[in-house]
Amino acid sequence: MRPRFNFGDQVRVTRNVRDDGTFPGANIGNLLVRRGSVGYVRDVGTFLQDQLVYSVHFFDQQKMVGCREEELIGADEPWNPSQFEFREKVTPKVALVIDGETIASPGDVGQVLKVLRDLPSGVGYHVRFPGRTLQIPEKLLDSAPADAPDLADLPDEEDADD
């Protein structure tokens, strides 16, 4: 196993890094570093003798976290940043209509199920609205209000008549 990155290399994390119970002062599942953040390699080690793990110092977050090699790319490699992440609540900027049927209107709450970074038209998302999942370009979405209900609390179409 030869490390791809060395001490001092600038790297970008490609997925959100959450506490797995090993970060001091954080609760399991807390977001430590958001995908796309850039940091510097401070050390290289192994985990279970078959995985390279890098200690990466993220200056903007003032955190040093362990990242597996597959979670990192060089900071100068191509990267498509996204406004939203998995599980974030969003609302459409315009009415989303299919065959004359309005699926979601501005103010309706949806939840991001998947971030699509490599679409020819730019970043897009699979967004779940009650009763339907749609692929929506980023430019058509806004953040839902912080007090918006969780999608699990919203009725699906078949439950709406109860």
TrEMBL record:
Biased composition (Acidic residues): 153-162
Domain of life assignment: Bacteria
Record-linked Pfam families: NifZ (PF04319)
Keyword annotations from UniProtKB, A to Z: Nitrogen fixation
Compositionally biased tracts (Low complexity): 142-152
Residue numbers spanned by region Disordered: 142-162
InterPro entries: Nitrogenase_MoFe_mat_NifZ
Keyword Heme annotated: no
Similarity-based family: Belongs to the NifZ family.
Protein name in the entry: Nitrogen fixation protein NifZ
Source organism of the structure: Candidatus Thiothrix phosphatis
